[in-house]
Amino acid sequence: VIRMLIDADTGIDDSLAILHALKAPDVKVEGITTVFGNASVAQATDNTLRLIKLANPGYEVPVAMGAAKPLTREWAGPVSHVHGNNGIGDVDLPASEQQALSESAAQFIVRKANELGGELTLVTLGRLTNLAEALEIDPELPKKVKRVYIMGGTVFAPGNVTPKAEANFRGDPEAVAAVMKSGLKITMVGLDVTMKVRLTQQHLDAAAGYCRPENKPIVQYMNDALQHYFRFYWQVDNLMGACPTHDPLTVLVARMPWVVRTQTMKVSIETEGVYCAGSVVADLRTKPSEGHEIEVCVDVDAEKIPHHLLSVF
Ligand code: BDR
Ligand code: CA
């Protein structure tokens, strides 16, 4: 069983990733921490609590609220045109009785890593602010975490918020730089692979047919929330009834690393520049010397991903 802690800026694709993890038979979600990004951190926290109620995983999943803004910069505000006014495509899920913990996301990450003695897998789906803060609290954290799967960045593919930068990395470049040089074992699941996968209306319709009866409301929620996301990807990438799968693929890679091909690279994070702040500089020279070594996902078995993602329901 993979003991997983998910850090999310709970928007539409984050919500799919969270539901997948909560229903995957080989995953125990040890907790979910939240961060600003797609929505405010308060909204992301509320969304997360509602999603846990919807999934009803059969065990308790603590939630800890994290950073409301980047380490050193100002936050530009939620991206309602991508994720809706409430972050989850304006779907109104029933409220939860569960409360967030009183400790912060960073404190919670540190506590869990220490409790689980090397068994904790981290999956980050938003800005890396919480993880950077956790590293400040406990500089020994890299020795205690099994591996971090990070949704963010791109090496070969274009950026999505600037020609060169991806949203999660752009949203707090200083945090990404701190995480990359920390010594954590990192697998970067960036736009190089997430943009290659297409989740479509057809996949959802099929899932509505084959899902277990108790998961019908989950599939219905995904269908409703994704309508908003489909509209956005129709506008930016000319996709019809389809979207890429950033955050869900990242959880999947943590479960099934064989669905991607990775390449070990030395990377640095650019923290300056109009276009390049938050972009990944990979040293691809014959004898790389600049940056810190991580695993970068460079290719994916794209056709199989939607089935892997939806068959847990
Ligand atoms: C990332 O940005 C957010 O909008 C998504 O949830 C995903 O984590 C993609 O660049
Ligand atoms: Ca996200």
Secondary structure: elements and pairs:
Layout: E1 2-8, H1 12-23, E2 27-34, H2 41-55, E3 63-65, H3 80-83, H4 105-115, E4 120-124, H5 129-137, H6 141-144, E5 145-151, H7 167-170, H8 173-180, E6 186-189, H9 191-194, E7 199-200, H10 201-210, H11 216-237, E8 242-243, H12 246-255, E9 260-269, E10 280-282, E11 292-300, H13 305-310
Parallel strand pairs: 1-2, 1-4, 2-3, 4-5, 5-6, 6-11
Antiparallel strand pairs: 7-8, 9-10, 9-11
Helix pairs in contact: 1-2, 1-11, 1-12, 4-5, 5-8, 10-11
The structure holds beta-D-ribofuranose and calcium ion.
Keywords: Glycosidase, Hydrolase
InterPro entries: Inosine/uridine_hydrolase_dom, IUNH, Ribo_hydro-like
GO molecular function, one term: purine nucleosidase activity
Summarize the structure in words.
Helix content is 38%, strand content 19%. With 313 residues, it is α/β, with parallel strands linked by helices. The strands form 2 sheets. A 9-stranded mixed sheet has the order 3-2-1-4-5-6-11-9-10, with helices on both faces. Strands 7-8 form a two-stranded antiparallel sheet. Helix 1 (12-23) links the parallel strand 1 (2-8) and strand 2 (27-34). Helix 1 packs parallel to helix 2 (41-55), helix 1 runs antiparallel to helix 11 (216-237) and helix 5 (129-137) packs across helix 8. The longest helix is centred in the C-terminal third of the chain and has 22 residues, at 216-237. The chain is globular. The two termini are 18 Å apart. The mean pLDDT is 98. It binds beta-D-ribofuranose and calcium ion (CA). Calcium ion (CA) binds next to helix 1. One of its GO terms (biological process) is purine nucleoside catabolic process. InterPro entries: Inosine/uridine_hydrolase_dom, IUNH, Ribo_hydro-like. GO terms for molecular function: purine nucleosidase activity. Keywords: Glycosidase, Hydrolase.
